[in-house]
Amino acid sequence: MLRVSAPAKINLSLKITGRRDDGYHLLESLVAFADIGDRLFISKSETSSLQLSGPFAAALGEANIIAQAHVRLASHAGQALHSQIILEKTLPVAAGIGGGSADAAAALRGLAQLHNVDVPLTEIAASLGADVPVCLDTAPAWMSGIGHDIERLPDLPPADIVLVNPRFALSTADVFAAFAAKGEFSMPINAPEGFASSTGLLDFMRAQGNDLQAAACSLAPEIEDCLAALRKAGLAYVAMSGSGATCFGLSAPGSGRAMAARYRTMREKDWVVAGRLIGAGDTKINETD
């Protein structure tokens, strides 16, 4: 059996730069990953099955993206790839941190390794969703286009991260519709080459921000309360990730847990977890009993 990590994807910055004729929005985003996420347990079996567990399993629908990833990988491989997959769902659903995309990417990586198949994972990932290709690796990345154009970056300076969610799902389509009603497209910029210091990273994030944050807050004002609590907890920089409703804060290494504890005193019903940013090579596939 393989145990595969599916780390949370964090949009440290997010700019909406245009919209294509087919309705897809163009974006630019600095993406990082955290040592916080779901896990998949994959083993060979006579027939294929998908089992769901974990605190957020009940929020998943029947048309799970992991099953879609399995079918498309098998089609490309020309084999059935019969497997039992168990998803331990610990990330909130429809939360702006790429949970489903990370799960699909983890399934592709794990199944390909388990069955020793050599297929174009990036191509399959792109067919599953805009965020799936970037989740195939945990190296920081600059995403552009509709999300499929990915430039991997050097590892970011060490930082702790606190993720919080007010425990409600927020529709990406609704957030983009709210942005379209009031927001303006941003001017594209060149991809950053990397960040030598935490100061440089934080300055970049402050300058870029998240173009969808105001739109999401107009639909769910409680996001503003989450951001305010993160600031009061002492995080160095706070923002919403993706289309929300998950928010994050960065802090110096070793300080995240204490700041998460402070946040809980202000908003005890929220989902709150502390971890750290990870880098290239931290995508884990381990054998287990």
What does this structure look like?
This protein has 289 residues and is an alpha+beta fold. It is 31% helix and 29% strand. The protein folds into 2 domains: 2-153, Ribosomal Protein S5, domain 2, CATH 3.30.230.10; 160-278, GHMP kinase, C-terminal domain (Alpha-Beta Plaits), CATH 3.30.70. The chain has helices at 65-77, 99-115, 121-128, 172-182, 198-208, 213-219, 222-233, 256-266; strands at 2-19, 25-44, 49-53, 83-88, 141-145, 149-152, 160-165, 237-240, 247-251, 271-278, 285-287. Strands 1, 2, 3, 4, 5, 6, 7, 8, 9, 10 and 11 form an 11-stranded mixed β-sheet that branches. Helix 1 links the parallel strand 3 and strand 4. Helix 1 (65-77) runs parallel beside helix 2 and helix 7 crosses helix 8 (256-266).
State the share of residues found in helices, binned by percent.
25-40%
Q: What is the correct CATH architecture of the largest domain? A: 2-Layer Sandwich
Q: If you average the pLDDT, what whole number results? A: 95
* Strand/helix succession: EEEHEHHEEEHHHHEEHEE
Largest sheet: 11 strands, mixed
| Strand element count | 11
- List the domain count as a whole number: 2
Category by helix and strand content: alpha+beta
Please write the CATH class name of the largest domain: Alpha Beta
The N- and C-terminal alpha carbons lie at a distance of 6 Å
Count, helices? 8
- Low-confidence parts lasting 5 or more residues at pLDDT below 50? none
Strand content: 25-35%
Outline: globular
